[in-house]
Amino acid sequence: MSAGLYTQLLDLACGAFLLAAVLVLWGRELAAIVRVFALQGVALAAVGLLLGAHEARWDLILVALAVGVLRAGVLPYLIRRALAVSAADRGSDEVRETQPLVNVAASLLTAALLTLLAYAVARPLTELNPTPATRALPVGLAVVLIGFFVLVTRRRALAQVVGFLLLDNGITATAFLATSGVPVIVELGVSFDVLLAVLVLQILTTRVREAFGTTDIDDLRELHD
Amino acid sequence: MSAIPAALATATALAATGALAGLGLPYRLRVAVVGVLTAGVGVAGGTAGVAALGGSRWRAVYSGLVPLAGAHVAVDALAGLFMAVAGAVLAAVAVYGIGYATGHGAHGLGSRTAQAVLPVFALSLVLVPVAAAVSTFLLLWELMALTSLFLVLAEHRGGHLPLGRSRERGSPSVRQAGTWYAVMTHLGLVLLLAGFALFAAQAGGETFATLRAGAHGIPPTVRGLVFVLVALAFTSKAGAVPLHAWLPRAHPEAPSPVSALMSAAMVNLGIYGLVRTGLDLLGGGPAWWWLGLLAMGGASAVYGILQAAMASDLKRLLAYSTSENMGLVLTGVGASGLFAAHGDKPLAALALAAALLHVVNHAAFKALLFCAAGSVLRATGLRDLDRLGGLRARMPVTAALFALAALGAVALPPGNGFISEWLLLQSLVHGLAVPGVAVAVVLPLSVALIALSTGIAAAVFVKALGVGFFARPRDERAAAAREAPPLMLAGMTLLAAGVVALALVPGLLGHGLDRAVGAVGLPGSGALTWGGLGVRLTDISARLEPLWVVAALTAAIVLATGLPRLYGRRRRRVNARLWDCGGGAPTPRMTYTATSFAEPLQRVFDDVLAPEQDVDVTPVRESAYLVERVRFQHRVPDRIEHRLYEPVLRALASTGRAARRLAGGSVHLYLGYGFAGLVVLLLALVVGW
User: Fold this and answer.
1) Residue B640 domain-assigned?
2) In a domain, A11, yes or no
3) 20 to 30 A from A93, CA-CA: which of A197, B211, B490, B652?
């Protein structure tokens, strides 16, 4: 693989990664959001694979494959299952993010601003060692910020789970791009952690719906002293 | 090689053993073993101090002891003086403490925690003056603050009650005192940390030797800032007005031996820090530093003793008196710095010697006073002077020892406090030769304030002794009082011996005091000489021979009481009933109480004290003209606390309440805080890069 092709493919994968995050903000149907999230998992795995292939490191390729299976396969499957249960239970009301706290247009604008911020913050880091990988570093940071933004503005519990996972995807991407992949054992630990978190959140979401009849977490307002 | 390192190593080993013994031993053994070991810490520390006063010096670095910086230690005569005072007080009070904690169950001072902490506190009192680097000093300082806090809280389940009475659960005043003490001592630590960090950064090193060498290269404004920060912290530890608020709370609520240690040894270390930093490390400074100290000292002296005059709680009275005496010491330190700033070294040495001698004297009589108050508290469960009384007959030894210490505290001959205050007044009176308008205004004012505080102190201790120990008991618990156990009396007798020695032959301390003054770069000897029994000021041609004063006074008293008695023998004495104005036999309720004794003073100082009175008349239901109940409430609040602290506390509380409104309960809001914080931080990073 030539250097030019590698750079172009890496940029493509990173672009798809960022675009998926923005599309999560755009979508209203939770099912569509989950699909976009799965696509982002694929893009993340592609970033890892490209880096591994470029540096000819088998452990990195292995980690990237594992990440791909988890983020594009297992996690979307789990969320979709929870979604199907709530759709069967309460009808279409529960499967749409009808009224986010910040509307879609403003969300997209904010995403643009956050991306700019990420580029501004990462500038000193890229200047340290300007390779194609570090030049793509701001994408990871931008996805972290966008994921956080989703957490803050979306009402449905499952949309929140996706936001949390976006944040984690961003962190993983940053780790790939900045350090050419963290050691296998660390990545395994992080992935396992995320899996457990999603399982717990899935159970929690079901419980919340059974108790309150909705998963709009803005209705839970007792959490103060 | 001197005896100092050996003595300090012994003290450390004894304290460690004591802490382990306090943790491990059962109650019966615990108190005695820990008491003996603590007394040993005191003796060892005192020995090191005396050796340093005798002229030997010692310095060492233990690089492994404190991470990064290493522990720097050094002992000179100034440190020696404070170590000797702390050691002597510790030795006597530890003996007293064995008696105090025995036989009252494994709670309060006898508890496992208190007994384990006590030797560590003792060790920290001895070791704080030994530190010779900022980090070492602050570590020991904090150790002292924390251990003393534990001990203040020792009786948090309610104080000593006389044997056989049921104990109330929990004492809010102890908790409150602990909170005040913890907050104020840590605010002091923050100031100290900031001041010393600034000083060390400017001087280029944190050992005291580097600071001393680098102090003169620092710009004057920074030096001034360092002094203000450090002086605020140290005067707060010394309990000077207006930073005294913790003192009248913590000292009364601590177990009495701990009160004695805090008031007679710990508070002194504030003075030590001030002298060490201001005069030694910073090497003196401009006049405004010292004028500020003089103002603080004068305010503490008068305000402290006025509040003591109003207090009816015996230990609270003593605590305020500590504030007063520290005010006098601060006046001496301030005057010393002022004279040094104007180049009059001999006078500066005299003022500092007076201040240090007053530290010693105050430690002796205040430890004894707190111990005696502790005996009263232990025997009666009462601290309220309005309910005490008649203890002279029931606790004769305690009463006599209290009287002896009170004589020292009123600063009249033949008490020991007189000598140091006389020296202080001499230095201030002769300081008028120093030029400057501020000096010409401040020094006479200081003299007047000292005179005023001495006068009120006389009233205060007449009240404490007369109302508390004479007259008739006003409470059944006071009537049932019994003399303290022998070990407590032994401890108090040791302290009393110190008081008497200081009152009669202060010359014994002479050369040590000269060396201590010399340690900060002032000419030690020369300003005052200690010829045998007396004190002679060479430059001023004034002299005082306490022994002769005592002899003359004794002769006068013997004559005044003996002659009428001889003469009166010839007349027949008629025993008749006291005239009672037809109102029936006098009852204890008719005697002077502490409140009524203080009433005239309170009227005189009405504007300063601003007492609060509240009359509440409840009429009978049938008629408005018939009174069922009249309630009269009278309080003399600490006005400075009222005006200075309460607005700050109210502002803090309302800020806290306002901050609670931020927590609305919405998860989105909480997440939003985190997100906004992150974005703002990143923006700051971008802009600031």
Assistant:
1) yes
2) yes
3) A197
Q: How many structural domains are present in chain B?
A: 1
Chain Cα centroid distance, residue B601: 24
DSSP string, A159-201: HHHHHHHHHHHHHHHHHHHHHS---HHHHHHHHHHHHHHHHHH
In a domain, B630, yes or no: yes
Answer yes or no: is B217 within a domain: no
**Side chain identity at residue B373, one-letter code:** A
Q: Which range marks the domain in which residue B627 is found?
A: 609-649
Q: What residues of chain A lie within 8 A of the CB of B670, using their CB?
A: 223
Please say whether the beta carbons of B528 and B548 come within 8 A: no
Mean pLDDT of chain A: 84
For chains A and B, what is the number of CB pairs under 8 angstroms? Answer: 49
Any domain includes B634: yes
Could you tell me which residues of chain B have a Cβ less than 8 Å from any Cβ in chain A? 660, 663-668, 670-672, 674-675, 678-679, 682-683, 685-686, 689
Q: pLDDT tier at A62 (50, 70, 90 boundaries)?
A: confident
pLDDT digits (tens, 9 = 90+) for B17-67: 999 999 988 888 888 999 999 999 999 999 999 999 888 888 899 887 877
Q: Cβ contact (<8 Å) for A221 and B679?
A: no
Using DSSP, state whether B609 is helix, strand or coil.
helix
Alpha-carbon distance A18 to A28, whole Å? 18
Q: What is the pLDDT of residue B170?
A: 57
**Domain span at residue A37?**
3-219
The alpha-carbon gap from A61 to the nearest alpha carbon of chain B, in Å, equals 32
pLDDT tens column, B182-206: 999 999 999 999 999 999 999 988 8
B570-581: average pLDDT: 74
Output the 3-class SS for B317-362. Answer: HHHHHHHHHHHHHHHHHHHHHHHHHCCCHHHHHHHHHHHHHHHHHH
CA distance B655 to chain A (A): 16
pLDDT at B113: 87
Give me the number of domains chain A comprises. 1
Q: What angle do CA B181, B185, B186 make, to 5 degrees?
A: 120
Query: Mind listing the pLDDT tens digit for each residue in A6-19?
Result: 888 988 999 999 99
Contact B81, B75 (CB under 8 A): no
Q: What tens digit of pLDDT does each residue of B536-547 get?
A: 676 666 777 777
Q: Do the bridges between strand B612-619 and strand B542-544 make them parallel or antiparallel, or are there none, so unpaired?
A: unpaired
Distance of residue A148 Cα from the nearest chain B Cα, in angstroms: 7
Cross-chain residue pair A152–B665, CB shorter than 8 Å: no
Q: Answer whether B679 sits within 8 Å of A153, measured CB to CB.
A: no
Residue A225 resides in a domain: no
Helix residue ranges, H only, A69-136 = 75-90, 104-128, 132-135
**pLDDT tens for each residue of B464-516:** 999 989 888 888 888 888 888 899 999 999 999 999 998 888 877 778 888 88
Q: What is the reported pLDDT for B13?
A: 94
Q: Which of B661, B667, B678, B687 to mutate to test the interface with A (most CBs of A within 10 A)?
A: B667
CB contact under 8 A, B665 and A217: no
Name residue A158's amino acid.
L
The nearest alpha carbon in chain B to A217 belongs to B667
Which tens digits make up the pLDDT trace of B640-672? Answer: 888 888 899 999 999 999 888 887 777 888 888
- Tell whether A95 is covered by a domain: yes
Task: Determine, for residues A117 and B674 on separate chains, whether the beta-carbon distance falls below 8 Å.
Answer: no
Least confident of A68-77, A83-92, A138-147, B262-271: A83-92
Please check whether residue A224 lies inside any domain of the structure. no
